[in-house]
Amino acid sequence: MSQSGGLQAEKRARTILTVVLTIISIIYVLPVLTVVINSFKLNTYVKTHTFALPTGEMWAGVQNFVKGMTFGNYPFFNSVKYSVLITVLSTAMILLFTSMAAWYIARVNSIICKIVYYLCVFSMVVPFQMVMFTLSKTADGLNLNTPWSIPIVYLGFGAGLAIFMFVGFVKSIPLEIEEAASIDGSGPVKTFFLVVFPILKPTMISVGILEIMWVWNDFLLPYLVLDINDYRTIPIHIQYLKGSYGTVDLGATMALILLSIIPVIIFYLSCQKYIIKGVAAGAVKG
């Protein structure tokens, strides 16, 4: 095959790949667009004209947002407060404790460390549904059923992915840097926080983004563990937008869903480049 023929074949392959990926992207974005469109429609038209633009008599404006935030006896901003509290505490604990554990696992070559590492990796493939009832009972017994204590439960579930990524990155850090700090008189704690911790920034940001998106959008774990009469996160609050006889105002529901995903989308778009860097940096075989 001539060089020009090879270039044309490569160009056609790229064009086909671009078309396929564009179609896949549209399929993934379509549900989000559906939420945006229906959040500005009256409830009746959400059911009958789901994919139509909210024009004319279908337009509800901010009515759905106001109704969603004022519906029922539970204040919406309490749900926002608890969602922020749980997300921030859970992510902070996961980043701090798993990075320390990963550093120890990567540097201490022992059977126990290897067993702990593989157990953490194995936990990534265990479905939550297998342990949710036992977990709920255990959390109640240990008083982990408040927004201030449920981050401990999230730490257990989020440790697998975080340790997997941190261990891969730590193995790429030259050991000589830590040895130099040790020669200068730094102990393990000082070495980690002053030498290793700053180097972990790419993976730290990447893991933080993934954990924030997970905890913020999680419904099942808070629903099972928290007392929903006192503490509701945003996903739980949306679940209880029901009127008499179980009727649901889909317009108000879509409006609150939109409000809940906007912060995550903005956060993800502003930090997405760090996800690629962090995953690539953590994908180191050791």
Question: Layout of helices and strands, plus pairs?
Answer:
Blueprint: H1 3-38, H2 43-48, H3 63-70, H4 76-107, H5 111-123, H6 132-141, H7 150-170, H8 175-183, H9 188-199, H10 201-217, H11 220-225, H12 234-239, H13 250-282
Helix pairs in contact: 1-13, 3-13, 4-5, 4-7, 4-10, 5-7, 7-10, 7-13, 8-9, 10-13
What does this structure look like?
By secondary structure, the chain is mainly α. It has two domains: 3-63, no CATH class; 65-282, MetI-like fold. It has helices at residues 3-38, 43-48, 63-70, 76-107, 111-123, 132-141, 150-170, 175-183, 188-199, 201-217, 220-225, 234-239, 250-282. Helix 4 (76-107) runs antiparallel to helix 5 and helix 7 packs parallel to helix 13 (250-282).
Brief descriptors of the model:
about 290 residues; mainly alpha; 2 domains
Question: Would you summarize the structure shown here?
Answer:
With about 290 residues, the chain is mostly helical. Helices cover about 75% and strands about 0% of the residues.
Beta-strand portion reads under 5%
Which stretches of 5+ consecutive residues score pLDDT under 50? none
Radius of gyration over C-alpha positions, nearest whole angstrom: 24 Å
Basic shape? globular
What order do the SSEs take from the amino end to the carboxyl end, as H and E? HHHHHHHHHHHHH
The major β-sheet equals: none
Average of per-residue pLDDT values: 86
CATH top-level class of the largest domain: Mainly Alpha
Oligomeric status of the shown chains? single chain
CATH second-level architecture of the largest domain: Orthogonal Bundle
Helical percent range?
over 70%
CATH homologous superfamily heading of the largest domain = MetI-like
Tell me the count of domains.
2
Number of extended strands: 0
